[in-house]
Structure formats: structure tokens, C-alpha cells
Design a protein that fits this description.
Belongs to the RimP family. This protein is α+β, with helices and mostly antiparallel strands and 222 residues long. It contains 4 helices and 10 strands; from the N terminus they run E-H-E-E-H-E-H-E-E-E-E-E-H-E.
Amino acid sequence: MTDDANTEREAAPTEGADQRIITETGIDARVAGIIEPVLESIGFRLVRTRLSGLNGLTLQIMTERHDGTMTVEDCELVSRTLSPVLDVEDPIDRHYHLEVSSPGIDRPLVRKSDFTTWTGHIAKIDTSAVLEGRKKFRGRIGEVSADGVTIESDQASYGDKPVVQVPFEMIAEARLILTDELIRDALRRDKDLREGRIPEENTDTAEETGMPAADQEQTKQI
């Protein structure tokens, strides 16, 4: 049974750009397998699922429309749709809270298209194995190919290469770093979407640009 709290530039045609390259493991993967086709059926795509010890036990589902927008009403719709599915499938054997949210401005990067969309902005990347003597990278997103992404360091340390090509297959986790430039770009993109200057399928009015789910909290008993 669950308690639920309801609380982006176009991608180049990179091969497999809309398939997630960073996916879950364990119980999170089981949940993702259940909800991902349901989300797709109502016009959304999964960004990430994560079960944490927040508020006892919380299942966070991070999702968005295919154009990158996500409104408070969208969160409510996704929550109402997924709650009964999760109750029937029952992938978690304990009482938990369900939280649906947008990815936020400093979003996780889970698809090749995410890196293309946010080229030029600063990202933090952790790799699954040692690459160029380390497993943690931070820098501007440069060229994106079918196989990997170039990261141009903005905080180069002695001995580290300033520019590194990171293969997609080695990325364990990646997310944008919140900067003034990113905020301005995200807000500009949101405005362009609302005014129809970026034509996308399923484009809706984006009333919020990355407010965390807790700021949009609504609860009910399932």
C-alpha cells in the first residue's frame, strides 16, 4: 500500500538517443520495469526511480514529458495513474510513500539526448571504472557522439587531462551542476516552449521549471 506525495535544447539524432543509458539496479530496476511502459502510454518518459529511507521509506519517481516539461498537474496525473499499478504489482513489501517529481534544473543526465540538449553546460560524471586515472569528472559538456561525450574541465587539477572523452558505457551517474548560466538557459527554453518557438510533440505549458516534489506536496491514502 502507498501514500503518495506529488510533490531540456532539442537532441541531435544520436543513435539510441532516447534510450536510457543509466538505469537502476535491484528493487529500483524492478519498479522501473513496471512503470516505464505505463508512463510511455500516457505521454511521459522515465528519468529515474529511487527507493530511499526518506520519511520512513519513499519511492521517488522522476519523470517528464518528451519535450522536457513537467507541470504540477502532470505530477498529479502520473501519481494517480501509477498508484493503482504499483498496488497491484506490489514490488515493495513494506509501507512506503510515493513521490512524483520533475527532474529539476540540475537534472540527472540519463539519455544521450540529455547530453546533447545541455551541451555547453557544466556536468558532474561518475564512471563505473577508472578512466584516465580517476572515476569522477566535472566540466562543460562538449561534443556528443554515438559512443560518448567530451568533458572539458572547468576546475582542472594538477595531472588531470583538461579534456576527456567519456564513453557512455562507462557512465554510472551524471547530472548537471546548477549555475546562473544553466538557470537562465532553462528558463529561456521553458519560455520558448510555452510560446511555441520549440515545436515538440506533446508540448504543454510548463508552469514550473524544476521545483522539487516537496514544494508541491499533496498527500492521500491509497
